[in-house]
Amino acid sequence: MKLDKIYLRKIKEDYLKFVKKQERFGDSFKDKLGQLNTFYLPISKKIYKKFIKKKKTIIVGLSGGQGSGKTTISFILKNILMTKYNLNVVSFSIDDFYKTLKERKKMSKMTHKLFLTRGVPGTHDILLLSKTLKKLTSDKFKFLKIPRFDKSIDDRLPKKKWIKIKKMPNIVILEGWCVGASAQTKKNILKPLNELEKKYDKKLEWRKKVNSELKTNYAKIFRLIDILIFLKIPNFKYVFKWRLLQEKKLKRISKGKKTMNKFQIKNFIMFYERITKQMIKDLTHKANIVLRLGNNHKIIKKTFN
Asked: Which CATH number describes the domain made up of 56-66+93-304?
């Protein structure tokens, strides 16, 4: 009991330092701890119980719209699971498995020009992701490297800069905006949803390919997930609002690296709009844990399905 209190104190200290550094939750000390006690600790406990029940490495999927706070929440959960439950946790983003710029250029010529822009299903190296997840959860685990993608150069980093994993993890956290997404019906993809689809995908080639990838290759990946956590944004307009905040922050710390302006962000999120809206409908009921976000970016409600 005494040891548990020491762990909890350490978790609180680390958590408060982290949210302050991230400029998140600009409210009172009491409210900050309220987020920890009401949401992060119970979720971590649920993940721990799942691990104990399965008695082997489990995969936690963490999804939500752009700028919803996936990376931050992933870090907090990882810290709690490592500190309180003494688990070995590996976390990374599906974004790190984007195809290289060279591969996407080839895809844009061979399949559809919109695939030059990273983001949608079809622009990830699903074979590499599948192999990585299987190696991370294998009883015969061996040293491996996880790729890293640099969005400022829109390309994958060289292998010498990849993340080295030397020990078999108990928990793997896979975060990403489309994690857990399902394919739409053929009827639902017929009507263009925005100017991007209307102007550049008149023959539905891009939409059909994206939907086909979700139905086949991505579905196989998402079936490996043991617990899916979904960050439910208030509505799609907050993707633009929060992504804009994200870019402003990146600009301050990126030391001259390439960032997007308002116009570029507005065009960029059109690529994500269709699937994001569908995920809000689907995962509100299908995800194992749903965290509803308020207008101020804070979690206001959790639901265990």
From this structure: 3.40.50.300
